[in-house]
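Example record

The entry below shows one chain as it appears in the dataset: sequence first, then structure tokens.
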Amino acid sequence: MAKHGKTYVESLAKVDRTREYTPHEAVKLMKETKRAKFDESVEVHFRTGLNVRHADEQLRGTIALPHGLGKEVKIAVFAKGDKAKEAEEAGADIVGAEDLAAKVQDGFMDFDVAIATPDMMPIVGRLGRILGPSGKMPNPKVGTVTMDVAKAVQESKSGKVEYRTDRTAIVHMTVGKTSFSDEQLLENYQAVLEELLRAKPSAAKGKYIRTVTLASTQGPGIKVDPTRTKDLVESETASAA
């Protein structure tokens, strides 16, 4: 079994692993237990009761976080002609067609989001084994296969992120940075939670969101009470008063 370092053990000792913290308690504790000197990402993991082997119990969609992710999002666009120019003018970092597909085939993955026009999908589709596992495959269901590439680029740059269940029915999301204020993290967290509740598959049975865990990149996981879903920022303000 892997051994943890001294600082991790010290951080873990501050967390009651048997307790489900309120969201604002979890945010404060997460900041207390962060270990790195750099600005760590803040991650939240939702374990659902969905049976993802059934197509009608899978979750996938996008959400625009109120305060973004706190980092510059690098965007690659597969497009030609006027649409390629439109993507460049909208702020895309990499734009190309067959040439970009060849670079990806050779291992180039230095981007966070991939967008494609519909006519490019026969070419982009061949990259499924490369882009799929990393969650970067363009998909019309989440707005990354579109003729309106300018809008797609602008939305992604402003903090629109994709979510989906993995093989174990967990949704992993980044909701900001440890440098964000408590209020910003709570508002981003609440936006994600409300979106998952809104998108609950009609075929879902039993308890939908079973556990929620919050953590910084190198910090310990903190259990969050999944029943706390409303007025999180107001609750945080009231408890501080």
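Notes for this example: The mean pLDDT is 91. The radius of gyration is 19 Å.
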